[in-house]
Specification:
alpha/beta, Rossmann fold, 5-stranded mixed sheet
């Protein structure tokens, strides 16, 4: 299961790995917590909300993914019990073995708050007395959590973040690009709001930087594994097991 903040976040940082997992036979779940309605300089709230929902659905189909609709508007992703209870209910329903989430540090709070919420939703999955909304029974499964790279591979202080692992996405980078291109509303917005020059090229530049850091691959995605306490056994690493052909350890900065 991949959980991110906004439509197109999964495409930028996680989708190459998700393509490999899909091709290996894994069931993929795709969820953005926020609806993306602030991502425009052109459209009104109703128009852009509908556009971004459809774009996200179209993108998820590239992975054959099960789509989960957003829960809140942009900039309303706060670490609250109300939102945690809703996300924890979805988590218990899906019961994923692998959870892909944003980096704990990133350039904006929506991203880091999703990271906190997703990790907590996973942590309370087996707590019988923790009530979720809508109600669902606690589940006993292990889950391994992986943190994607922050956007642009930099934290909020613009310092590079080094991953623990690399996944070689060279074979699927064009599929990743095609998936990102479904978010047509974002091209002009990102150019205007953040100085992007061709958002598809920007994604590839970020993946090339990870590839260069790996010293092995042309394009890569970087991942850090969450502390396993409360989630899984110490040795669990299903991405390494499933994607061993595309996996390598980082050797450090």
């Amino acid at each position: 299961m991949a959980i991110a903040a906004h439509p197109d976040d999964i495409e930028f940082g996680m989708s190459g790995t998700l393509f490999h997992l899909h091709n290996a036979g894994c069931e993929i779940h795709y969820m953005n917590i926020a609806n993306g309605y602030c991502g425009t300089a052109e459209y009104d709230v109703e128009t852009i909300t509908a556009m971004r929902l459809q774009e996200a659905k179209n993108a998820s189909r590239h992975l054959g993914a099960i789509f989960h609709p957003p829960l809140v508007p942009d900039f309303e992703i706060y670490y609250t019990k109300e939102l945690l209870d809703r996300l924890a209910s979805i988590f218990r329903d899906v019961a994923p073995d692998i959870l892909l989430v944003p980096s704990p540090e990133d350039y904006m709070e929506d991203h880091t708050n999703v990271c906190r919420l997703a990790v907590s939703a996973a942590f309370v999955r087996g707590m019988k007395n923790y009530r979720v909304n809508p109600p669902r029974k606690a589940i006993p499964n292990e889950v391994v959590i992986y943190h994607a790279q922050p956007h642009g591979n930099r934290n909020s202080l613009n310092k590079i973040v080094y991953p623990d692992y690399f996944i070689n996405i060279t074979r699927v980078v064009e599929e990743k690009s095609d998936m990102l291109a479904e978010h047509k509303s974002q091209k002009n917005w990102l150019d205007v709001s953040q100085g992007f020059n061709a958002y598809l090229d920007t994604m590839k530049v970020h993946a090339q930087e990870m590839g260069a850091l790996s010293t092995k691959y042309e394009f890569a995605e970087g991942w850090r594994q969450h502390n396993p306490v409360g989630f899984c056994s110490m040795e669990a690493n299903p991405i390494a097991d499933i994607l061993h052909k595309y996996f390598c350890l980082a050797v450090g900065p």
